[in-house]
Write a structure and sequence with these properties.
alpha/beta, Rossmann fold, globular, 44% helix, 391 residues, 2 domains, single chain, five-stranded parallel sheet
């Protein structure tokens, strides 16, 4: 059941919610339902720095809700989306959560990035409303500083240690890299986490990290550092970060004549990578991801075809993770037998062998899914699945 909010949360509401509500407008996905429906909040980055992630995840979630409602809904009720834009800002994400809790949501999907989820966590924990993070991969999203699991925070994506380890092993085993350079976003916990586990695994498997370099959010000129890296003559460069910085970085690397393989994490997954870097610069680059739209699994083919028909674009991993977030929430509501937030939380914690678009998953004791990952490769502007790696 929902508890009344404390003075801290009410202050968040007072500071932000008027602007949020005024700016959201009204449509079928923005509240206004009745007691016969089940309101679920979708708190996404629909504008701002990582809008590509949020808009695609929202499309996936919206598609899932439409399909579920068309099939009769859940427990005889229709799902109702309460949609809000957090503008890619942590403080906005928190205020959005506070406002949606007051509107009576039974669960929240999103935000996408780890820092924005963490900003929402105190509000959702206090209000006893479960949050499902589609793509927040930082290890401390679902646990506190003492490694205790947050009761109401879950995710459907794998975590940073897993994908950092995947890329290190791929670089060593598949690309035969003996030396590597790490060039990471030092302003991002996400990137630092990937770099940490890449380094740990690469060195444990006998590889050598020649040097570690850094950039920060909104950097656009990487040539001086790339020139320095080129003199090290590495076999592989690992670039954990988000697409806004990585796309121009890769373009500049190729312009400087750096032709060796370059790899990264799921933060690379955006159409803007191709728009900014261009197809030639992306050749011989690889990144860890949650699924491939090229997978021939019948359920993935059906999802891709339906998504493309509705939105006229290919569903990236964020679209698939948004879709899976709603579907696993619906499974939890069915398992709970009612749309009660506390019972939904308990049901989510006991999910086993859930068949999602991004793979079969079982929720572990820290509310992370045990699931496979994939390595995608860019070939002439197309993302091609190179290999699938089991946990």
């Amino acid at each position: 059941m929902k508890k009344s909010l404390t003075k801290v949360t009410m202050l968040v509401l007072m500071l932000f919610v008027l602007g949020i509500v005024a700016g959201c407008g009204g449509n079928a996905g923005d509240g206004g339902g009745d007691a016969a429906d089940i309101p679920i909040g979708i708190n996404c980055e629909l504008s701002g720095g990582v809008a590509s992630y949020g808009t695609n995840a929202y499309s996936g979630a919206e598609l899932a809700v439409e399909q579920i409602n068309a099939a009769g809904g859940v427990l005889g009720k229709q799902l109702r989306i309460v949609k809000r834009d957090n503008k890619s800002l942590a403080e906005e994400a928190a205020s959005v959560s506070a406002s949606m809790v007051e509107e009576g949501i039974v669960a929240q999907v999103g935000p996408l990035v780890s820092s924005n989820v963490q900003a929402c966590t105190p509000i959702l924990m206090e209000s006893q409303i479960p949050l499902i993070a589609p793509a927040a991969t930082a290890t401390n999203v679902t646990v506190n500083k003492n490694d205790k699991t947050f009761d109401y925070i879950f995710r459907v994506c794998f975590i940073d240690p897993f994908q950092g380890t995947l890329m290190a092993r791929f670089a060593k085993d598949d690309l035969n890299a003996k030396t590597a350079v790490i060039y990471k976003d030092t302003s991002s916990d996400y990137a630092k986490g990937l770099a940490e586990y890449f380094k740990k695994t690469f060195e444990a498997d006998g590889g050598t990290i020649l040097t570690e370099e850094g950039f920060v959010k909104d950097d656009r000129d990487f040539k001086a550092t790339l020139t320095k890296i080129k003199t090290k003559n590495p076999d592989f460069i690992y670039v954990p970060g988000y697409y806004q910085e990585v796309a121009p970085l890769l373009k500049q690397a190729r312009e400087l004549g750096i032709t060796i393989p370059i790899g990264g994490g799921d933060g690379w997954d955006s159409p803007d990578m191709l728009k900014v870097a261009g197809p030639a610069a992306l050749n011989n680059s690889f990144f860890t991801n949650h699924y491939s739209s090229q997978d021939k699994d019948p359920k993935i083919v059906s999802f891709v075809d339906t998504f493309k028909a509705k939105y006229n674009k290919e569903p990236d991993a964020f679209a698939a993770l948004g879709y899976d977030s709603v579907q696993i929430l619906v499974q939890a509501i069915k398992d709970a037998g009612e749309a009660d937030p506390v019972k939904i939380k308990d049901a989510l914690a006991n999910i086993k062998d859930f068949e999602g678009i991004t793979g079969k998953m079982t929720i572990d004791e820290q509310h992370n899914p045990v699931k496979a990952g994939v390595i995608l490769e860019y070939k002439d502007g197309n993302q091609v699945m190179n290999t699938r790696i089991q946990p």
